[in-house]
Amino acid sequence: MSDSALVPLRSARRTVTLTIDGQAVTVPEGTTILDAAATLGQRLPTLCYLETLHPVNACRVCVVEVENSRVLVPACSRKVEPGMVVKTSTDRVKHSRKMVLEFLASSVDLSTTPDVAGWIAEYDAKPERYGPPAPPSSTRDAAHAGHHAAPDPAYAATVRQPEKIDNDLYMRDYSKCILCYKCVEACGTDYQNTFAIAVAGRGFDARISTEFAVPLPDSACVYCGNCIAVCPTGALMFSSEHDRRVAGTWAEERQTKTDTICPYCGVGCTLTLHVQDNEIVKVTSPYDVTITRGNLCIKGRFGWRYVQNRGSREKNGDTNGDKNSDKNGDRNSDKNGG
Question: What is the mean pLDDT of residues 111-127?
Fold first, then answer.
Protein backbone atom coordinates (compact mmCIF):
# COMPACT_ATOMS: atom_id res chain seq x y z
CA MET A 1 0.00 0.00 0.00
CA SER A 2 1.39 3.39 -0.96
CA ASP A 3 1.81 6.15 1.60
CA SER A 4 -0.68 8.28 -0.33
CA ALA A 5 -3.42 5.73 0.44
CA LEU A 6 -2.94 6.03 4.20
CA VAL A 7 -5.47 8.15 6.06
CA PRO A 8 -4.06 9.90 9.16
CA LEU A 9 -6.26 9.44 12.21
CA ARG A 10 -6.56 12.02 14.94
CA SER A 11 -6.89 10.98 18.54
CA ALA A 12 -10.44 11.33 19.80
CA ARG A 13 -11.08 14.38 21.95
CA ARG A 14 -12.79 13.89 25.25
CA THR A 15 -16.12 15.62 25.69
CA VAL A 16 -17.43 17.80 28.49
CA THR A 17 -21.05 18.13 29.56
CA LEU A 18 -22.23 21.36 31.17
CA THR A 19 -25.43 23.33 31.63
CA ILE A 20 -26.07 26.71 30.01
CA ASP A 21 -29.24 28.55 31.03
CA GLY A 22 -30.81 25.26 32.13
CA GLN A 23 -29.92 23.39 28.93
CA ALA A 24 -27.43 20.52 28.98
CA VAL A 25 -24.81 20.62 26.25
CA THR A 26 -21.91 18.31 25.42
CA VAL A 27 -18.90 19.79 23.63
CA PRO A 28 -15.27 18.78 23.03
CA GLU A 29 -12.81 19.43 25.83
CA GLY A 30 -11.14 22.83 25.44
CA THR A 31 -14.23 24.53 24.01
CA THR A 32 -14.94 28.02 25.32
CA ILE A 33 -18.21 28.97 26.96
CA LEU A 34 -18.83 31.30 24.01
CA ASP A 35 -18.60 28.44 21.49
CA ALA A 36 -20.57 26.10 23.73
CA ALA A 37 -23.39 28.66 23.91
CA ALA A 38 -23.27 29.00 20.12
CA THR A 39 -24.11 25.29 19.77
CA LEU A 40 -27.40 26.11 21.53
CA GLY A 41 -28.06 28.98 19.16
CA GLN A 42 -27.09 31.65 21.69
CA ARG A 43 -25.04 34.56 20.33
CA LEU A 44 -23.35 36.36 23.20
CA PRO A 45 -22.19 39.94 22.55
CA THR A 46 -18.49 40.35 21.79
CA LEU A 47 -16.23 43.18 20.63
CA CYS A 48 -12.62 42.22 21.32
CA TYR A 49 -13.06 38.55 20.36
CA LEU A 50 -12.15 37.08 16.99
CA GLU A 51 -11.85 33.39 16.27
CA THR A 52 -8.50 33.83 14.47
CA LEU A 53 -6.80 35.71 17.34
CA HIS A 54 -5.87 34.82 20.89
CA PRO A 55 -8.48 36.26 23.28
CA VAL A 56 -7.28 39.16 25.42
CA ASN A 57 -10.43 39.65 27.53
CA ALA A 58 -10.41 43.41 27.03
CA CYS A 59 -13.99 44.51 26.32
CA ARG A 60 -15.85 42.40 28.93
CA VAL A 61 -19.22 42.52 27.17
CA CYS A 62 -19.30 38.72 26.86
CA VAL A 63 -19.13 38.07 30.62
CA VAL A 64 -21.39 35.38 32.07
CA GLU A 65 -22.12 34.02 35.51
CA VAL A 66 -20.66 30.66 36.49
CA GLU A 67 -21.98 28.90 39.57
CA ASN A 68 -19.54 29.06 42.53
CA SER A 69 -17.38 31.66 40.76
CA ARG A 70 -16.74 34.81 42.78
CA VAL A 71 -16.62 37.05 39.70
CA LEU A 72 -18.20 37.12 36.27
CA VAL A 73 -16.06 35.33 33.69
CA PRO A 74 -15.33 36.18 30.02
CA ALA A 75 -17.12 33.62 27.87
CA CYS A 76 -14.69 34.16 24.97
CA SER A 77 -11.73 32.65 26.82
CA ARG A 78 -13.03 30.59 29.74
CA LYS A 79 -12.89 26.90 28.89
CA VAL A 80 -15.78 24.64 29.80
CA GLU A 81 -15.51 22.22 32.71
CA PRO A 82 -17.48 19.06 33.56
CA GLY A 83 -20.64 19.90 35.46
CA MET A 84 -20.21 23.65 34.98
CA VAL A 85 -23.42 25.65 35.41
CA VAL A 86 -23.49 28.83 33.30
CA LYS A 87 -26.06 31.62 33.27
CA THR A 88 -25.81 34.14 30.45
CA SER A 89 -28.59 36.61 31.23
CA THR A 90 -28.93 37.07 35.00
CA ASP A 91 -29.51 40.52 36.49
CA ARG A 92 -25.86 40.63 37.48
CA VAL A 93 -24.73 39.87 33.93
CA LYS A 94 -27.12 42.39 32.40
CA HIS A 95 -26.02 45.12 34.82
CA SER A 96 -22.35 44.45 34.02
CA ARG A 97 -22.93 44.64 30.27
CA LYS A 98 -24.97 47.81 30.71
CA MET A 99 -22.14 49.50 32.62
CA VAL A 100 -19.52 48.42 30.08
CA LEU A 101 -21.60 49.75 27.20
CA GLU A 102 -22.19 53.03 29.02
CA PHE A 103 -18.50 53.51 29.72
CA LEU A 104 -17.59 52.73 26.11
CA ALA A 105 -20.30 54.80 24.46
CA SER A 106 -19.65 57.82 26.69
CA SER A 107 -15.94 57.93 25.83
CA VAL A 108 -15.68 56.40 22.34
CA ASP A 109 -17.42 57.09 19.03
CA LEU A 110 -19.27 53.84 18.33
CA SER A 111 -21.20 55.12 15.31
CA THR A 112 -19.58 52.62 12.92
CA THR A 113 -19.50 49.67 15.33
CA PRO A 114 -21.92 46.92 14.24
CA ASP A 115 -24.57 45.68 16.71
CA VAL A 116 -23.70 48.14 19.51
CA ALA A 117 -26.81 50.30 19.05
CA GLY A 118 -28.94 47.19 19.50
CA TRP A 119 -27.06 46.15 22.64
CA ILE A 120 -27.41 49.63 24.14
CA ALA A 121 -31.15 49.42 23.62
CA GLU A 122 -31.34 45.82 24.88
CA TYR A 123 -29.56 46.56 28.14
CA ASP A 124 -31.09 50.04 28.56
CA ALA A 125 -27.66 51.66 28.69
CA LYS A 126 -27.65 55.45 29.04
CA PRO A 127 -24.16 56.78 28.25
CA GLU A 128 -25.49 60.34 28.12
CA ARG A 129 -25.91 60.36 31.92
CA TYR A 130 -22.16 60.95 32.24
CA GLY A 131 -22.51 64.30 30.53
CA PRO A 132 -21.74 65.71 27.07
CA PRO A 133 -18.53 64.51 25.38
CA ALA A 134 -15.39 66.50 26.05
CA PRO A 135 -13.76 68.42 23.17
CA PRO A 136 -11.25 66.47 21.06
CA SER A 137 -7.64 66.47 22.21
CA SER A 138 -4.80 67.16 19.81
CA THR A 139 -2.15 66.23 22.38
CA ARG A 140 -3.25 62.70 23.19
CA ASP A 141 -0.25 61.14 21.43
CA ALA A 142 2.09 63.15 23.64
CA ALA A 143 0.43 62.21 26.93
CA HIS A 144 2.82 60.88 29.57
CA ALA A 145 1.89 58.02 31.86
CA GLY A 146 1.22 59.24 35.37
CA HIS A 147 0.78 62.88 34.36
CA HIS A 148 -2.98 63.13 34.15
CA ALA A 149 -4.83 66.41 33.84
CA ALA A 150 -7.65 67.00 36.30
CA PRO A 151 -10.96 65.91 34.77
CA ASP A 152 -13.52 68.55 33.88
CA PRO A 153 -16.76 67.66 35.69
CA ALA A 154 -18.77 69.43 33.00
CA TYR A 155 -17.88 66.78 30.40
CA ALA A 156 -17.61 63.04 30.01
CA ALA A 157 -13.97 62.22 29.31
CA THR A 158 -13.46 60.94 25.79
CA VAL A 159 -10.66 59.61 23.60
CA ARG A 160 -11.58 62.00 20.78
CA GLN A 161 -8.70 63.29 18.67
CA PRO A 162 -8.18 64.37 15.04
CA GLU A 163 -8.15 61.69 12.35
CA LYS A 164 -4.74 60.47 11.20
CA ILE A 165 -4.49 60.53 7.42
CA ASP A 166 -0.84 60.09 6.48
CA ASN A 167 -0.99 57.60 3.59
CA ASP A 168 -3.19 56.81 0.59
CA LEU A 169 -4.33 53.36 1.69
CA TYR A 170 -6.07 53.66 5.03
CA MET A 171 -6.81 56.15 7.77
CA ARG A 172 -6.86 55.94 11.55
CA ASP A 173 -9.59 57.47 13.69
CA TYR A 174 -8.67 56.62 17.26
CA SER A 175 -11.77 58.45 18.49
CA LYS A 176 -13.41 55.10 17.68
CA CYS A 177 -10.76 52.92 19.35
CA ILE A 178 -11.90 50.77 22.29
CA LEU A 179 -8.42 49.30 22.92
CA CYS A 180 -9.52 45.80 22.03
CA TYR A 181 -5.90 44.93 21.12
CA LYS A 182 -6.97 43.15 17.93
CA CYS A 183 -4.79 45.31 15.68
CA VAL A 184 -1.80 44.84 17.99
CA GLU A 185 -2.30 41.07 18.01
CA ALA A 186 -2.67 40.88 14.22
CA CYS A 187 0.41 43.05 13.67
CA GLY A 188 2.36 41.06 16.27
CA THR A 189 2.80 37.43 17.17
CA ASP A 190 -0.62 36.19 16.06
CA TYR A 191 0.07 36.81 12.36
CA GLN A 192 2.20 39.53 10.80
CA ASN A 193 5.10 39.72 13.27
CA THR A 194 5.84 43.28 12.15
CA PHE A 195 5.24 44.91 15.55
CA ALA A 196 4.63 48.32 13.99
CA ILE A 197 2.03 49.26 16.60
CA ALA A 198 1.53 48.74 20.32
CA VAL A 199 -0.33 50.22 23.27
CA ALA A 200 1.33 53.33 24.70
CA GLY A 201 0.46 55.07 27.94
CA ARG A 202 -1.59 53.92 30.89
CA GLY A 203 -5.07 54.32 32.23
CA PHE A 204 -7.29 56.70 30.29
CA ASP A 205 -4.22 57.93 28.38
CA ALA A 206 -3.62 54.47 26.88
CA ARG A 207 -3.78 54.50 23.07
CA ILE A 208 -2.55 52.62 20.02
CA SER A 209 0.69 54.14 18.79
CA THR A 210 3.63 53.56 16.50
CA GLU A 211 7.12 53.49 18.00
CA PHE A 212 7.89 56.99 19.32
CA ALA A 213 4.51 58.07 17.84
CA VAL A 214 6.08 58.60 14.42
CA PRO A 215 3.83 58.97 11.34
CA LEU A 216 2.80 55.62 9.92
CA PRO A 217 4.97 55.92 6.76
CA ASP A 218 8.03 56.30 9.00
CA SER A 219 7.17 53.24 11.11
CA ALA A 220 7.75 49.53 10.52
CA CYS A 221 4.28 49.20 8.95
CA VAL A 222 4.24 47.08 5.75
CA TYR A 223 0.66 48.11 4.87
CA CYS A 224 -0.73 44.58 4.90
CA GLY A 225 -3.99 45.99 6.24
CA ASN A 226 -4.56 43.06 8.56
CA CYS A 227 -5.18 45.54 11.37
CA ILE A 228 -8.10 46.95 9.35
CA ALA A 229 -9.50 43.46 8.84
CA VAL A 230 -9.77 42.79 12.58
CA CYS A 231 -10.82 46.26 13.81
CA PRO A 232 -14.39 45.99 15.18
CA THR A 233 -15.24 49.70 15.38
CA GLY A 234 -14.01 51.41 12.20
CA ALA A 235 -11.09 53.08 13.96
CA LEU A 236 -9.01 51.67 11.09
CA MET A 237 -10.64 52.06 7.70
CA PHE A 238 -9.87 51.86 3.99
CA SER A 239 -9.38 55.34 2.53
CA SER A 240 -11.85 54.35 -0.18
CA GLU A 241 -14.51 53.63 2.45
CA HIS A 242 -13.69 56.70 4.53
CA ASP A 243 -13.90 59.05 1.56
CA ARG A 244 -17.28 57.65 0.55
CA ARG A 245 -18.60 57.93 4.09
CA VAL A 246 -17.52 61.57 4.23
CA ALA A 247 -19.19 62.20 0.87
CA GLY A 248 -22.34 60.39 1.99
CA THR A 249 -22.11 57.82 -0.83
CA TRP A 250 -21.16 54.73 1.21
CA ALA A 251 -24.05 52.25 0.90
CA GLU A 252 -23.43 48.71 2.12
CA GLU A 253 -26.97 47.69 1.18
CA ARG A 254 -26.04 48.21 -2.48
CA GLN A 255 -22.76 46.35 -2.27
CA THR A 256 -22.12 42.85 -3.54
CA LYS A 257 -19.38 40.46 -2.42
CA THR A 258 -17.52 38.20 -4.83
CA ASP A 259 -14.74 35.75 -3.93
CA THR A 260 -11.80 35.42 -6.28
CA ILE A 261 -8.11 34.48 -6.13
CA CYS A 262 -5.39 37.08 -5.78
CA PRO A 263 -3.51 37.40 -9.12
CA TYR A 264 -0.16 38.55 -7.76
CA CYS A 265 1.64 35.37 -6.66
CA GLY A 266 1.25 31.61 -6.40
CA VAL A 267 0.06 31.39 -2.79
CA GLY A 268 -3.57 31.54 -3.91
CA CYS A 269 -5.06 33.86 -1.29
CA THR A 270 -8.83 34.24 -1.43
CA LEU A 271 -10.02 37.81 -1.93
CA THR A 272 -13.56 39.02 -1.24
CA LEU A 273 -14.28 41.97 -3.51
CA HIS A 274 -16.78 44.48 -2.11
CA VAL A 275 -18.33 46.17 -5.14
CA GLN A 276 -20.59 49.21 -5.16
CA ASP A 277 -21.85 50.90 -8.33
CA ASN A 278 -19.57 48.70 -10.44
CA GLU A 279 -16.46 49.79 -8.49
CA ILE A 280 -14.38 47.82 -6.00
CA VAL A 281 -14.57 49.77 -2.75
CA LYS A 282 -12.52 47.46 -0.53
CA VAL A 283 -11.10 43.94 -0.32
CA THR A 284 -11.28 41.49 2.56
CA SER A 285 -10.47 37.80 2.96
CA PRO A 286 -12.63 35.08 4.61
CA TYR A 287 -11.62 33.98 8.10
CA ASP A 288 -12.55 30.36 7.39
CA VAL A 289 -10.10 29.91 4.48
CA THR A 290 -7.08 28.09 5.88
CA ILE A 291 -4.61 29.65 3.43
CA THR A 292 -5.00 33.16 4.81
CA ARG A 293 -7.40 33.07 7.78
CA GLY A 294 -8.46 36.58 6.81
CA ASN A 295 -4.92 37.90 6.34
CA LEU A 296 -3.44 39.41 3.18
CA CYS A 297 -0.35 41.32 2.05
CA ILE A 298 -0.31 44.86 0.68
CA LYS A 299 -0.90 43.63 -2.88
CA GLY A 300 -3.91 41.52 -2.04
CA ARG A 301 -5.44 44.10 0.31
CA PHE A 302 -4.82 47.25 -1.72
CA GLY A 303 -3.49 46.27 -5.14
CA TRP A 304 -6.84 46.27 -6.94
CA ARG A 305 -6.98 49.88 -8.13
CA TYR A 306 -5.53 49.03 -11.53
CA VAL A 307 -8.72 47.07 -12.25
CA GLN A 308 -10.69 50.31 -12.29
CA ASN A 309 -8.40 52.33 -14.56
CA ARG A 310 -10.22 51.08 -17.64
CA GLY A 311 -13.61 51.74 -16.08
CA SER A 312 -12.62 55.34 -15.32
CA ARG A 313 -11.67 55.96 -18.93
CA GLU A 314 -14.94 54.43 -20.11
CA LYS A 315 -16.85 56.88 -17.94
CA ASN A 316 -14.97 59.70 -19.68
CA GLY A 317 -15.95 58.34 -23.10
CA ASP A 318 -12.50 57.01 -24.01
CA THR A 319 -13.69 53.56 -25.00
CA ASN A 320 -11.75 53.57 -28.27
CA GLY A 321 -8.55 54.19 -26.40
CA ASP A 322 -9.22 51.12 -24.29
CA LYS A 323 -9.81 49.00 -27.36
CA ASN A 324 -6.61 50.24 -28.94
CA SER A 325 -4.62 49.67 -25.76
CA ASP A 326 -5.92 46.11 -25.64
CA LYS A 327 -4.71 45.57 -29.21
CA ASN A 328 -1.33 46.94 -28.23
CA GLY A 329 -0.93 44.33 -25.53
CA ASP A 330 -2.04 46.22 -22.41
CA ARG A 331 -3.97 43.14 -21.34
CA ASN A 332 -0.67 41.58 -20.38
CA SER A 333 0.14 44.50 -18.08
CA ASP A 334 -3.23 43.97 -16.39
CA LYS A 335 -2.40 40.33 -15.75
CA ASN A 336 0.89 41.34 -14.24
CA GLY A 337 -0.72 43.79 -11.84
CA GLY A 338 -0.07 46.77 -14.14
Answer: 96
Sign of CA dihedral 225, 287, 173, 148: negative
Q: Note whether residue 266 is domain-resident.
A: no
CA dihedral 227, 229, 231, 236 (to 10 degrees): 70
Q: What is the per-residue pLDDT for 307?
A: 87
Annotate 190-213 with b (16+ C-beta within 10 A) or e (fewer).
bbbebebbeebbeeebebbbbeee
- Give the CB-side neighbour count of residue 241, counting CA atoms within 13 A: 20
Q: How far apart are CA 2 and CA 109, in angstroms?
A: 60
Amino acid 288 reads D
Number of domains in the chain: 1
Exposure b/e, 240-249, CB count within 10 A at least 16 = b: bbbebeeeee
Q: Domain span at residue 63?
A: 15-99
Please indicate, yes or no, if residue 116 is contained in any of the structural domains: no
What are the pLDDT digits (tens) for 225-256? 999 999 999 999 999 999 999 999 999 999 99
Instruction: Give DSSP secondary structure letters for 176-224.
Output: G-----HHHHHHTTTTT----EEEESSGGG-EEEEGGG--GGGSS----
Residue 6 is assigned to a structural domain of this protein = no
Q: Whole-angstrom Cα distance, residue 198 to residue 207?
A: 8
Confidence of residue 11 (pLDDT cuts 50, 70, 90): low
Q: How long is the chain?
A: 338
What is the CATH number for 33?
3.10.20.740
Q: What is the pLDDT of residues 290-334, one digit of tens each?
A: 888 999 999 999 999 888 876 545 555 544 444 443 444 443 334
Contact 178, 116 (CB under 8 A): no
pLDDT in tens, 36-95: 999 999 999 999 999 999 999 999 999 999 999 999 999 999 999 999 999 999 999 999
Q: How many helices (H) and strands (E) does the chain have?
A: 10, 12
